[in-house]
Write a structure and sequence with these properties.
Layout: H1 2-6, E1 14-15, E2 24-25, H2 31-37, E3 43-46, H3 60-81, E4 85-91, E5 108-110, H4 121-140, E6 144-149, H5 160-165, H6 168-175, H7 183-200, E7 202-207, H8 218-223, H9 225-232, H10 236-243, E8 253-255, H11 258-264, H12 272-280, H13 288-293
Parallel strand pairs: 1-2, 3-4, 4-6, 5-8, 6-7
Helix pairs in contact: 3-4
């Protein structure tokens, strides 16, 4: 919202919880409320969703209500309101089982051409919402771009084994190699999508920091990642050693943002190399926006790492 205002837009926020950027307190599945909120709107950025952290606290029916019915409601009311473009924030989680190669296989090279294979209700409902986006574009001509975002949350990792093995910020910087995007870069991608949607019509784009690897590296990143990274980034060993950090032995997937860079004109700034430069200069590797947003807290009751509201961890 802050960035959109800085770019000269007049955004109106919709959320189920009141807040400083919430102009309409309602659910995206409430058709009457959505219709009222869209009066005079020229564009929609749809990021409302039940996320993976909600799987343990919400029913599948609730996921369908928000992620599928809510998306259809927004799309149909956007058409009725004469909205000129629609940006849907999806997730790389739609790829699901395709992100887990068998032992001995190369890392998954993840482009928009990889066939999705969702693993859970979150991925299934987000993929269904994507399909609704394409349906509405096809039937009504509404320009719709789907941004499949990789990780950008500030919370600690949701897998206990990784949390026990790595410093939280170490994990996030490691992920810039293959499965994370900084929030500032994601916001820029949304702005560019708004500009390009009318010309592009419909498209799906992976939004993740630019990987330093090529597809030819897919086998080696699975089995010999530290040596490969240090070949690409000579300063990595010293920067990591000073903090007591380490790289994983291997990674199983690499998100490829080539289509977004080519078709949206997007060039993410907060890459792994940029993070090393900032760390080497004694700076936090994250953007000011990522630091300002902090952790969200997804549950009112104790529920793993997604419960307590807190700011992002310090450098």
């Amino acid at each position: 919202m802050t960035q959109l205002r800085a770019e000269g837009h007049s955004p109106a926020g919709m959320d189920v919880i009141p807040g400083p950027t919430t102009d309409h307190v309602c659910s995206v599945a409430d058709r009457a409320a959505v219709r009222a909120a869209l009066v005079g709107a020229d564009a929609v950025i749809h990021s409302a969703t039940l996320h993976k952290p909600h799987i343990g606290s919400h029913t599948r029916a609730e996921f369908v209500e928000t992620n599928v019915t809510g998306t259809l409601t927004l799309l149909e009311e956007a058409v009725a309101a004469g909205v000129s473009r629609f940006i849907f924030i999806s997730t790389t989680s739609v790829f699901g089982k395709a992100l887990r190669p068998k032992a001995g296989d190369p890392a998954a090279w993840v482009t928009e051409q990889l066939t999705p294979a969702p693993r859970n209700i979150y991925g299934i409902t987000k993929l269904a919402a994507e399909e609704l986006c394409e349906l509405i574009h096809r039937d009504h001509g509404l320009p719709v771009l789907v941004l499949r975002t990789s990780r950008f949350f500030p919370e600690e990792d949701d897998e206990p084994e990784r949390r026990a093995s790595f410093d939280p910020l170490n994990l996030k910087v490691n992920e810039l190699l293959h499965r994370r995007v900084d929030l500032a870069d994601l916001v820029q991608a949304c702005s560019l999508a708004l500009e390009r949607a009318p010309a592009l019509g419909f498209g799906r784009y992976i939004i993740s920091a630019t990987t330093p690897f090529a597809e030819i590296d897919a086998a080696r990143v699975r089995s010999d990642l530290p040596a490969l990274v240090e070949q690409r980034f000579s300063q990595c060993h010293d920067v990591y050693a000073r903090r007591g950090w380490r790289l994983p032995d291997g990674i199983g997937r690499i998100y490829v943002n080539a289509a977004a860079r080519r078709e949206l004109g997007w060039e993410p700034r907060f890459t792994f190399g940029h993070a090393l430069e900032r760390l080497g200069a004694g700076l936090d590797p994250r953007s000011d926006l990522a630091l300002a947003i902090g952790a969200k807290g997804y549950h009112a009751e104790p529920h793993d790492v997604y419960t307590v509201r807190a700011r992002a961890e310090p450098a």
